[in-house]
């Protein structure tokens, strides 16, 4: 199918882009990597009056990594973030998760920020932002605001972005010393959206006991489901954790739905299994061990 007709604009500056979006109001859509929007247009599941292609806007493709975390610009492609040594050093979960996003050709074009705004509950990057307590910076003609992850994902394929706003960057915080992360998922084919997936972050205390443990689960709710499982895991070394009890605690926290890919019960079971794998690997990484 072909997309419905729309007014295509390709601004050369951020100011021009924000002006075009303000004019279009709820009829405007941003085009970034196009890896989700173009299929939606071609299937006629989206019919915006105006598409604002921001690919020529300078200054939006930055990846700034530092001790506090990584700020990723709106035009930083999945592949660029995945390959950035600075981003991997400051927040290893980015690379761990991006390797699971679709296929390399899609990652060459798709953007991390686009994936956040698209807010697919099966997508990896929203779970990463939610787990880390990151934020998204939104710009409009009226100014800028920084929205924390907890308020950003408002429903399946729904985010806090308002008509007239452009997400200019996202911030993924670093974790404290003695922390580790991991992402595990199961997809029917490599590169497909996950049937279920879990991102985990673990921080150890000075005696190498688990001091903090969190998971973010995908494909088991309308938005990424974040759970603090510190009480179920610690304070004890990873080798002494009752992992079956941790899996049960995570299973109790999610409310998946069944569909043609998996029953709700299977998704719940899988989430418990993946949570334990991800938490154990995150604890190993916090110890400085390869998983
Ligand atoms: C075959 C296939 C498999 C895929 N598998 C996965 C997968 O396993 N995991 C996964 O996470 N994703 C997957 N994707 C989606 C892919 O990661 C997309 O790149 C991503 O979801 C959207 O990024 P984009 O830059 O292409 O956004 P676009 O397609 O350009 O836009 C997506 C949506 O976000 C809005 N938007 C984008 N950028 C901004 C911005 N800066 N400000 C405001 N609004 C914005 C657009 O208006 C649109 O509504 C898959 C895609 C395909 C085609």
Automatic annotation (TrEMBL):
Domain FAD-binding PCMH-type span(s) in chain numbering: 1-177
Keywords for this protein: FAD, Flavoprotein, Oxidoreductase
Superkingdom of this protein's organism: Bacteria
Gene Ontology MF, one: oxidoreductase activity
One Pfam family named in its UniProt record: CO_deh_flav_C
InterPro entries documented for this protein: CO_DH_flav_C, CO_DH_flav_C_dom_sf, Diverse_Substr_Oxidored, FAD-bd_PCMH, FAD-bd_PCMH-like_sf, FAD-bd_PCMH_sub1, FAD-bd_PCMH_sub2, Mopterin_DH_FAD-bd
Keyword Chloroplast among record annotations: no
Cited PANTHER family: XANTHINE DEHYDROGENASE SUBUNIT C-RELATED
Protein's name according to its UniProt entry: Xanthine dehydrogenase family protein subunit M
Native species: Microbispora triticiradicis
